[in-house]
Structure formats: structure tokens, C-alpha cells
From TrEMBL, chains A, B:
<keyword id="KW-0028">Amino-acid biosynthesis</keyword>
<keyword id="KW-0560">Oxidoreductase</keyword>
<dbReference type="InterPro" id="IPR012134">
    <property type="entry name" value="Glu-5-SA_DH"/>
</dbReference>
<keyword id="KW-0963">Cytoplasm</keyword>
<comment type="similarity">
    <text>Belongs to the gamma-glutamyl phosphate reductase family.</text>
</comment>
<dbReference type="InterPro" id="IPR016161">
    <property type="entry name" value="Ald_DH/histidinol_DH"/>
</dbReference>
<comment type="pathway">
    <text>Amino-acid biosynthesis; L-proline biosynthesis; L-glutamate 5-semialdehyde from L-glutamate: step 2/2.</text>
</comment>
<dbReference type="InterPro" id="IPR016163">
    <property type="entry name" value="Ald_DH_C"/>
</dbReference>
<dbReference type="InterPro" id="IPR020593">
    <property type="entry name" value="G-glutamylP_reductase_CS"/>
</dbReference>
<dbReference type="InterPro" id="IPR015590">
    <property type="entry name" value="Aldehyde_DH_dom"/>
</dbReference>
<dbReference type="Pfam" id="PF00171">
    <property type="entry name" value="Aldedh"/>
</dbReference>
<dbReference type="InterPro" id="IPR016162">
    <property type="entry name" value="Ald_DH_N"/>
</dbReference>
<protein>
    <recommendedName>
        <fullName>Gamma-glutamyl phosphate reductase</fullName>
        <ecNumber>1.2.1.41</ecNumber>
    </recommendedName>
</protein>
<feature type="domain" description="Aldehyde dehydrogenase">
    <location>
        <begin position="9"/>
        <end position="281"/>
    </location>
</feature>
<keyword id="KW-0521">NADP</keyword>
<feature type="domain" description="Aldehyde dehydrogenase">
    <location>
        <begin position="315"/>
        <end position="404"/>
    </location>
</feature>
<comment type="function">
    <text>Catalyzes the NADPH-dependent reduction of L-glutamate 5-phosphate into L-glutamate 5-semialdehyde and phosphate. The product spontaneously undergoes cyclization to form 1-pyrroline-5-carboxylate.</text>
</comment>
Length: 415, 415
């Protein structure tokens, strides 16, 4: 088994160095790492071929193989992603608030890095450079543990980033890779309490559950989104249709896509046939409850399991509800606290939905697809937190920081 | 074993109700709970006597017995503490920031409760009402698990608070007590991932370590403080003496007291005799390194263990260092990331110390004793976080909240 203690110690030492680097230096290093990725495109492609061959042997699905595949263009995108992170404002060192207390102490809340961040992730190799650059920019050392499917690609990518840091002789172990994909090592990483300040899992529901049950280091859960759109009795129906199609069909495989549509019974009779037409035109399969079935031609009957399924596919569950209250109860029972939307023109309904629905992002008259760090204006994101501790919703650079109280006195003692 | 699943479920349901209560209603209930405490003073004293008798049998130290002892005055203080929390501003519902993104969405960060908070704590029964009132005011349900020494007192206190809630028929299980002090139950509570949003241990280093190693629910570590004061070569020595005496002797048993004094070698020869005199006048025993011993009359030789000991007692370790850099290295190696201070009149030294020392609170020319929620202006505190995730330093009502993004649209879809 790999020596995680050594990795942890190296990360901690590097984190301290990195935490003290000025922004200009961090940006310079990010740009150097981006250049190195482009320069060594061939090395990356060779490693990626190993992964693709293995995927072939293991008869991995085409869609997964596509996620895995790197091309010179995709490598350039990864490099450009790092350059963009270099251009984002650096949160570290900023003082959010500063006030004078009754003793005359000047107390400031200054942003500092978290320290050492672990990331456990699946499949796509671009997560490697995305996560590495966001952690680096926010002054954190990172220990990356990718999935076995992209093992060779990830290993090569981290090697290149590390070479660039070694060359600059600055925080050389700020970016490290766990080159062991065994479950034992994953478990040991989840319990590396002496070194990891936080662990962020990025992947499917199974991974998130495993991490949640096993990890003794602090975890920020990300990702799964069993999201709803509720069409209220006071909805503008011509606004509802494009929002529903967008939330479901624009990119069904992502966590902010809609999975269940709830419809007030008063609008169901005339709205359901219309939305069915639009959904069919977008190749969406419908799983409907009994009441909705009355107004639908092509739907399959929904079962209890449908309400808690995150399809991530061209499938939509539909349910008719008697009231806004019933919609809210259904959502709070089945959702994964990610993104929820109401379509309404009623003021009271909008306020009630915003207040009572428990989710990271709650929308009035907009698609759930907007839950995203770029869209929210954070410049980037390392994931979308569905828990309440530390960060909730899209996590940008700010969410990768903590605070330190800096206190300026002139001889104060406590009475 | 107690049925923690039921407790958890009840807490979750109550948390949802409590999260929707208006501030005025929460305040009214806090005041009613305070009244109930006073009204049932006799019941509390009877329960407390059971604990005190048990302490007597177990030959508990007098200082511990004093912490355990309740009197009508102390019960009134607890009630008044609850009334003070009622008067604090309610963070829930406030929108910290709101901005318009490029799609025209109005995006707001609204404060919401964390949900269900677990508190594992030791000895003092006033923690019961303090923690309960802070969690309640911030809209969180709480599950309290106190130490066995104060079992009867804690149980009775929670019973009274719960009776008041039951009478009002509002969120009756918002405050619950684990009436089982076994280690198995404590462990099960630390792993109650389905219901606990966060667990806050309050107690000694042993408890904190056990929670950190065992808990799979999110934890906010609190408390232990192996704190330093560094007297720089540019220190105003007449300012240093009162700060050192205050940091060490004003209340040695608390986590923000100083444990090790570091002194620049240039000032050691004339400063050490002076500070020894002041320390002796305050009944402080000195454990000094070899270099410091040269200038001290009464000190015992320090061993390696002294540098990492949180005495919480009338003992101080003293070490002479060659430079500011050496002081910072020593502090970052041995401290528990709580509170650190430099005494200096040099601008560069102050800035370097503030930047490079890793701790929740870093002071220039002030006593470490100020790290406290009341002193910082938060009105109250539930503990002092020594970790970086979610909250760092004194935790007030704000630190018991999370956020929800509320998003106002008018038909936006994602492109």
C-alpha cells in the first residue's frame, strides 16, 4: 500500500509554503503549469491511450469512453482552464470584516487557505487539472485520488504539474497523486485525520455514500441532484414549457438537471398534453403517476422508486399535486437538497416556496440548470455542495478558504 | 441502548418546524423556557444533589464538584443567559449578499439553520442551557449528550425546557437529551449520519480526540489551547509584563490562557528576572529551557513534553529563542491553532507574525485571553473552533447557520 503518511506530511509542508506565496507568484506558477501541459501533450496522449485500451478491454460504455478520451484540443482546454484560474481574484489575505471591540481591539476576519484538501473523483481526467488549479490558487495543497479508469492519464497529468513546481522549487508537493486505486487506500485517505483538512468527493451517489459512511476527516458532500420543477396553479404556462425543457433536456447527465416535474391539479388537464408534446420532441421518456396518466398518451406508470431516482438520463417523472403545500412536502421528502424551482406568478406562492423548500438553490421562474459556480459569478467551481456545513451550493475559490482572526492591540488585558 | 434513530427523526422534524418560526416566536419561547427554569429551581436542585452525592462517593476533586454545583443564583444566571440569547439579533433569514448575474437572475445568499446539531460535553450543567438556547435561537434542533457526572442535573434541565416547548406545542423535540452515558451510545451518536448535520464536542483533549477519530458526521472541533506569547526583541517590556500575567494567571483553567512564553534572546537577560518576579507573585510555577534557566531563580527544567502540554493550571513553560523566525516555527510546531500573541513595537515583526502563525486568533500587543465570542462582539459563544472547516475561532449564532441560494428569475433558461 502507498505511504499516505508521507504524502500527507509532504502536503502539509507544501501547504504552509503555498499559503504564504504572493498572488503574483501563484499565478506565474499556474501559467507555467498550463504551458507544461501543452508542451507535453504527447506524453499525456500516450498515457491516455493506455486508459482507453483498458476501457476497450473492459467493454466500457461509449459515453464513458468519450469522457475519458483526451485530444490535443481537450488538453489545450485544460491548460486554458488553468490560465483562467490564474486570472481570478485571489481570496487569500483579504479581510472580510474588521471592527473595533469595546476593549479597543481592532479585530479582522482574514481569509486563509484550508490547508490540505483531498479530492476523490471518478472518470474524467479534466477534474485533475481543474481541482489542482483551484486548490493551488486558493493556497491549498491537494492530494488527488482519481478513478482507476483514468489512472494513467491522471498520473501523467499530475507528474507534469509537479515537475513544473519542482523546477520552480516552490511548494513542490502542493499537488500530489495517490497512485493506488485500491479500496483500502481510499479508506485510509478518508481517515487521514492527521493531515487532511477536508475531503471532497466528486462522483456518483455510490461514491458519495461510501465517503460519508467511512470518512473521519471533514467531508464536503457534492453532487447528487434529484431536482424538481413545480408548476403552480398561477404559473405562466408559456414560461413553464421552455424552463421545463431546459431543466430536463439541455444536459440530462448533470446534477442540476430536473428529474421530477410536479404539476398543480388545476392546470394539469390543459398543461400536461402540451408539455408531453414538447418532451416527446426532445426524446424524453415520461414516468407518470396515476392522475397525470389521465392526460398523457405515451407515459409509463411511475412507481415509488421513480420519486427518489436521479435518472441523469432522458427520463422525467411527473406527478400531479393538489396544492403548493403538497408539492413542498414531496420535494422535501425526496430531494437531495440540490436545486428546486417553482413556476408561478403568485407572490405568496413564490415566497412560501423560497422559504420552505430545503435545498442549496431555490428558484422562482428559472431553470434549475443555473446552479453552477460560473453562472453564479464565482469564476469557477470545484463542485456543488449539498450539505450545510462549511459551504452550500456551488463552491468557488472562496469556499476553499477559512478565516483567521487578526487582532491589533496596544497593551490590552482582559478584566 | 437508547433509540437514537427515534431521537434523530424527532429532531429532524422539529428542526424543520423551528427553522420556519419567526424571530418573535422563538424569543417568546426562550423567555418561557427561562421562566420555567426559575419556577422549577427546586426540581433542579434535587437532581443536582443526586449528582453531588455521586461525586462525593466517587471522591471527585473539589474544583470539579464546584463546577457541578448548582445554587438558586446559578440557576437564575442560566435563566438570564437564555433571556440574553433571546435579545440577540436573529441571523436566520438575513440575506448576506444579493447580486444580479449576467442572465439577469437575482441571486441571494440567505442564512438558514444547519438543521440538527449534536453536542457532546463534559461536567458543567450550564452548558446544557447555553447550548440549547443558542441552537434554538439559530433555528437548530439540538441533541445534547452530557457527561455522567452531571447526568441528573442535565436530564432535569432538558426536561424543563422540553416541557415548556410541549406546552407551547411548537417544535417540542427541538431540544433533546441522550439519557444514556455509555460509550456505545456516544459512538452511535457520532455516527448518526442520517440525522445529525454537525457534532460539536465541548470538553478536554481526550474527548476531542475520541470524537475526531470516531465521528463520521461532520464535526467542529473546539477548545484545546496550547497558546504562546512571544516577547520580541522590540517589545515594550512594561507592556509585556501585564499581558503575560493576564494571559497566564487571570484564569489558567480556560482554553485561551497562555501555556508557553517565548522570549527573544536579546531581551532575556533583563526581562526574565522581572517576569519571574511577577509570575511568582501570581503563584505561577515556571518550567524553563536551559538558556532561560540562566536568568531564573526558581524555575524547574523543562522537558520536551512541556512544549506540547496544555497545563490549564498555574504553570508556565518558558523558552528563549534566537529570532522571530524561530518563535514562529516553534509555535506552528507545538500549538493547537487556538490563540497566539506577539509583543513588539516593530512593524515588520507584527506583520510577519500575523501572517505566518497558524491559529484561529493571532494578536499583536494584547492578551490571548480575548479569544471569546462575547469579547469579539458576537453576544455569545457555543465554543471556540480550532479547525478550519465551517467556522474558526469563537462561534456565535452566525456560525450555527448555513446558507441557501434564493434565485429570482423571470423565465431564464440556460444556454
Amino acid at each position: 500500500m502507498i505511504d499516505l503518511q508521507t504524502l500527507g506530511k509532504q502536503a502539509k509542508d507544501s501547504a504552509y509554503q503555498l499559503g504564504l506565496l504572493e498572488t503574483a507568484k501563484k499565478n506565474e506558477l499556474l501559467n507555467q503549469m498550463a504551458d507544461a501541459l501543452e508542451k507535453r501533450t504527447d506524453d499525456i496522449l500516450i498515457a491516455n491511450t493506455l486508459d482507453l485500451n483498458q476501457a476497450e478491454e473492459n467493454k466500457i460504455r461509449d459515453v464513458m469512453k468519450d469522457r475519458l478520451r483526451l485530444t490535443p484540443e481537450r488538453i489545450q482546454e485544460m491548460a486554458n482552464g488553468m490560465r483562467q484560474v490564474a486570472q481570478l481574484p485571489d481570496p487569500i489575505g483579504n479581510v472580510d470584516k474588521m471592527w473595533k471591540n469595546t476593549d479597543g481591539l481592532l479585530i479582522g476576519q482574514q481569509r486563509v487557505p484550508l490547508g490540505v484538501i483531498g479530492i476523490i473523483y471518478e472518470s474524467r481526467p479534466n477534474v485533475t487539472t481543474d481541482a489542482a488549479s483551484l486548490c493551488f490558487k486558493s493556497g491549498n495543497a491537494v492530494i488527488l485520488r482519481g478513478g482507476k479508469e483514468a489512472f494513467h492519464s491522471n498520473q501523467q497529468l499530475v507528474q507534469i504539474l509537479q515537475d513544473a513546481l519542482l523546477e520552480a522549487q516552490l511548494a513542490p508537493y502542493a499537488i500530489q497523486f495517490v497512485d493506488d486505486t485500491s479500496h483500502e487506500t481510499a479508506k485510509a485517505l478518508m481517515q487521514l485525520t492527521d493531515y487532511l483538512d477536508v475531503l471532497i468527493p466528486r462522483g456518483g451517489a455510490g461514491l458519495i455514500r461510501r465517503v460519508k459512511q467511512t470518512a473521519t476527516v471533514p467531508v464536503i458532500e457534492t453532487g447528487t441532484g434529484n431536482n424538481h420543477v413545480y408548476v403552480d396553479r398561477h404559473a405562466q404556462l408559456d414560461m413553464a414549457i421552455p424552463i421545463i425543457i431546459n431543466a430536463k433536456a439541455q444536459r440530462p447527465s448533470v446534477c442540476n438537471a430536473m428529474e421530477t416535474l410536479l404539476i398543480h391539479h388545476e392546470v394539469a388537464p390543459f398543461f400536461l398534453p402540451k408539455i408531453e408534446e414538447a418532451l416527446i420532441a426532445n426524446q424524453i421518456e415520461i414516468h407518470a403517476d396515476e392522475r397525470a396518466m389521465d392526460y398523457l398518451k405515451t407515459a409509463l406508470p411511475a412507481t415509488e422508486a421513480d420519486w427518489s431516482t436521479e435518472y441523469l438520463d432522458y427520463i422525467l417523472a411527473i406527478k400531479v399535486v393538489d396544492s403548493l403545500e403538497e408539492a413542498i412536502v414531496h420535494i422535501n421528502k425526496y430531494n437531495t437538497k440540490h436545486s428546486e424551482a417553482i413556476i408561478t406568478d403568485n407572490y405568496g406562492a413564490s415566497q412560501k416556496f423560497l422559504k420552505e423548500v430545503d435545498a442549496a438553490a431555490v428558484y422562482v421562474n428559472a431553470s434549475t440548470r443555473f446552479t453552477d459556480g460560473y453562472v453564479f459569478g464565482f469564476g469557477a467551481e470545484i463542485g456543488i455542495s449539498t450539505q450545510k456545513i462549511h459551504a452550500r451550493g456551488p463552491m468557488g475559490l472562496h469556499e476553499l478558504t477559512s478565516i483567521k482572526y487578526i487582532v491589533y492591540g496596544n497593551g490590552q488585558i482582559r478584566h
